[in-house]
Write a structure and sequence with these properties.
Chains A, B: This is MarR family winged helix-turn-helix transcriptional regulator. Two copies of one chain form a homodimer. With 157 residues, chain A is mostly helical. Chain A has seven helices and two strands. Chain A folds into two domains: 44 residues, no CATH class; 107 residues, Winged helix-like DNA-binding domain superfamily/Winged helix DNA-binding domain (Arc Repressor Mutant, subunit A, Orthogonal Bundle).
DNA sequence: ATACATCGTTAGTGGCACTAACGCAATGAG
DNA sequence: CTCATTGCGTTAGTGCCACTAACGATGTAT
């Protein structure tokens, strides 16, 4: 995995002090690092995060409409078209009409898709290990919990 | 400040469980929320984060070349041109030649720039208060510290 | 029959991270 | 003194991604 040195938040004396206390800057830079690590790992096997997200949704909810997948994942319906196209081309999902409602497609995960999901899940577990390596188990849970509360708050709780 | 509900990480039963344990997804969504809150607050006074970053650099280091500012802030030299253009147009900075080296410009903060920096710093302090509202003081320090350690690790420490 | 909403798709827009290349200038080696 | 290399700032892009608008087909309610 490549080095994310250019996204280092604190460059010692080189970084102006007002920037060092900017949580938004810290969040932005660290999220960009984490995103790059995950993206590179997934790209290495010809996947991206949207593939994982859609496969995870099908894995849990079974065959679903595109609108339902978009609703559960936050992926825009317009963007989801291409994601499903590439999953279909890879043999991981099938797109078919919904007999009950001609407006809808039903997206079904294939067995290859199930295996792909497991593969990507494993890759992301490794990414997680790498990203979280400097933290102990309690600290990992703490970080996750604190971020989750901030997220919920900003979402309007 | 607008509601960031569409970036809610955990939608209860609606969110597939594998996504709920993805730290990279949590980081990405929360960073996007925080970024939007900060951006909207800054945009409301005709600024953006790059203005703040450059003014913070000039505030601490005094008159500097564009290359030095780029080096200290991580802003690409090609992108810095427009940031300095708008600071100059706003009367917050002055761009002039360096007598010692004609290759270089020297960017100098004006008094209006100093006031602007103080204004933006105050706005970002309010943003910080809003973002961190659900956490106690210890938790805020903890979150900051944990993220800083992850960032340093991914930067190659 | 009609108005409205849903679904999926296409066709964009704008911002941003990022790179390449250019002209001018400075520096160091030979 | 000449020349190659590097530095500086700018222009001109590229590609990705978050996001929106609009369309045609379809379903529903009145």
């Amino acid at each position: 995995m490549e080095n994310n040195a250019e996204l280092r938040f604190d460059l010692g004396d080189k970084t102006p002090r007002p920037l060092k206390r900017q949580f938004s800057r810290l969040m932005g830079m660290t999220a960009a690092q984490v995103s790059k690590v995950a993206q590179e790992a997934l790209n290495a096997v010809g996947a991206n995060k949207f593939h994982f997200v859609v496969l995870a949704t099908l894995h849990q909810f079974g065959p679903s409409s595109q609108a339902a997948i978009a609703d559960r994942t936050g992926i825009y319906r317009s963007d989801l078209v291409a994601v499903i196209n590439t999953l279909e081309e890879g043999g991981y999902a099938r797109r078919g009409p919904d007999p009950a409602d001609k407006r809808r497609n039903v997206i079904t995960m294939t067995e290859a898709g199930t295996r792909r999901f497991t593969e990507l899940d494993g890759i992301l577990a490794e990414v997680h290990e790498h990203v979280m390596a400097p933290l102990g188990e309690d600290e990992r849970e703490q970080l996750f919990s604190l971020l989750t509360r901030v997220n919920a708050h900003l979402a309007g709780d």
